[in-house]
């Protein structure tokens, strides 16, 4: 055992309190010490000793029994994203553990702090192809920030301490601890729990270099057309206020990646909209016109940049990120500001001159007007024809007034929800950004609600994605959690269909998906529901969903073959964005 | 970094200081395999500091790719530090062993000359076979294969490259910094500050 922890000095009074407990109980004590209140999990043979110990901790640890481990981990993600705390997930060995893989990959690429605990076969059976044995540590190595296998109970306190420290610090991410069954059962002398603050080989954040802040400030002060791009890093660093102060002083228009949505309220005058493939017109076109591009807590995903060799070539790039491997990974940084934006933004704000770039901002607004005329008006306020996805989100905005948490799945409805949802608060847009995991929204919404019990959670889901994890309706039924499920049903796997229409001569290959009667399915789980297809009843139905006591499923039949625009076709430059 | 053409592929020696942790080899190896980069050679060994391991990895890539790969390696929790260097920046050696039939070699070859010219030595001489050993750069160990091939080379094996970084001061001082709760500037380096340095450090 070589965990390389630097621990706080053990308090002498603790030494008197050494008690002999099982590894399983030590795990639960450790979770309580880390202020865990909710666990999403599913029991099984190799994790039974932990579940047995949990029986005595039911009053302190709220365990939510999910219907599938993938649902469990997405719920953990939703919980982490809405609460800002680490999500905790339990699964058994073998298939239980492998069912976590999609969620781990999703959490890694979207920097979500998770601590997953998997059961493992007895240590003496490792490598024997024992029942439900799988090499989960090696399977999950590429999709975890860190993982570790425990084979002796005495390792548990330090391993858990290290896991939470790694999951939450620096650029957050998922970690996994695989605990052999013998270690769960084994009794050992528990000397008390000490949280981990430092690991010598791990530097979650650097000391910020003043010279780069100065260089960045100089570029910003001399810029004529500066442009800020922000991502989830602003929220992960809890730097929303610092960010707002910075852009307000500098008077710089700012656009967001879908992971960053909500860090600045939708209606803030400097918020010019969404970046990327289905982002807004102005931010995409003007990326190739700005003179200084300031990227904050974002990683220049290909869905944001489009064709890289035609991306912001005219601009000087200032990149603020806590992860040094992101700087100059996709877009070469002129000034690399490696650090926690909670620290770097105030340093920068201090050095910049208060300005307003009125004319430049006006340019964004002119593009916006064009986009409203060409795209948005018809999407949000269609007078005739079938219901559009956009108008559903628009009506929802009018009812929630931007106060709800919007969880979206993956596909057309996701782009529409992210583009149009009004968000007043941070941690209000929860979606699978980097991995694009269909089936994410329903379980993530359950977790999001547990992470923010005082807020309304609306899960916007397509007819395809809903069918990937609809078993979690059972979790809603049993836990009684209040989640509003809004299915935008276009009877197609819409985003793939859109690509087939635009780029493959309408050869609709396996995108025509048949769905069950969702309202009947929901009612089977004791969840109230309604399906509508007429514009007249839309607002009332949304109101009914929102004011219903408890979960509610509303299916809205939307127009079948609508496309999401604007669009930067794959392989095109952001300035080649199409309005139709 | 003395590289003139960052887009041209060349040999890079990547030196990784790590904790001794099960599974870390896999974590490092998949950073290469994910990007379909072939590892030419890989050696793990103790370092100048007890308890700290040293990986020496040889790849043939562009500097741009090596820089990104190195920063991905350094990001791993149990990795302390990553350096990458071109061949000019390091002193390196590989060791090779050659097994040949003793009767043939004794009869036909001028063994003494052969060993002298190739800086080799005989490790084992038995009635049935002889094992030679040589240490050097790739061309040197390669050369002895060609020489021995006509005499019926039975077995050949070459070790991974091990390398010493010319400009390195070793890891002692850095490790002391790492062990501090609040590491100083020296450890929490920003790679871009070291642009002009003889030895590139990230």
TrEMBL record, chain A:
The keyword Coiled coil does not apply. One of its GO terms (molecular function) is acetolactate synthase activity. Signal peptide: none annotated. Keywords: Amino-acid biosynthesis, Branched-chain amino acid biosynthesis, Magnesium, Metal-binding, Thiamine pyrophosphate, Transferase. SUPFAM superfamilies: DHS-like NAD/FAD-binding domain, Thiamin diphosphate-binding fold (THDP-binding). This is Acetolactate synthase. Residues 213-348 form the Thiamine pyrophosphate enzyme central domain. It holds the Pfam family TPP_enzyme_M. Residues 409-556 form the Thiamine pyrophosphate enzyme TPP-binding domain. Pathway: Amino-acid biosynthesis; L-valine biosynthesis; L-valine from pyruvate: step 1/4; Amino-acid biosynthesis; L-isoleucine biosynthesis; L-isoleucine from 2-oxobutanoate: step 1/4. The lineage of its organism: Bacteria, Pseudomonadati, Bacteroidota, Cytophagia, Cytophagales. Coiled coil: none annotated. It comes from Pontibacter silvestris. Its cofactor is thiamine diphosphate; Mg(2+). Residues 22-138 form the Thiamine pyrophosphate enzyme N-terminal TPP-binding domain. Belongs to the TPP enzyme family. Its EC number is 2.2.1.6. InterPro entries: Acetolactate_synth_lsu (IPR012846), AHAS_TPP (IPR039368), DHS-like_NAD/FAD-binding_dom (IPR029035), THDP-binding (IPR029061), Thiamin_PyroP_enz_cen_dom (IPR012000), Thiamin_PyroP_enz_TPP-bd_dom (IPR012001), TPP_enz (IPR045229), TPP_enzyme_TPP-bd (IPR011766). The keyword Zinc-finger does not apply. PANTHER family: ACETOLACTATE SYNTHASE CATALYTIC SUBUNIT, MITOCHONDRIAL, THIAMINE PYROPHOSPHATE ENZYMES.
TrEMBL record, chain B:
It comes from the Bacteria. Residues 13-87 form the ACT domain. Pfam families: ACT_AHAS_ss, ALS_ss_C. Pathway: Amino-acid biosynthesis; L-isoleucine biosynthesis; L-isoleucine from 2-oxobutanoate: step 1/4; Amino-acid biosynthesis; L-valine biosynthesis; L-valine from pyruvate: step 1/4. GO terms for molecular function: acetolactate synthase activity. Keywords: Amino-acid biosynthesis, Branched-chain amino acid biosynthesis, Transferase. It catalyses: 2 pyruvate + H(+) = (2S)-2-acetolactate + CO2. Its EC number is 2.2.1.6. Belongs to the acetolactate synthase small subunit family. NCBIfam families: acolac_sm. This is acetolactate synthase. It comes from Pontibacter silvestris. The lineage of its organism: Bacteria, Pseudomonadati, Bacteroidota, Cytophagia, Cytophagales. The gene is ilvN.
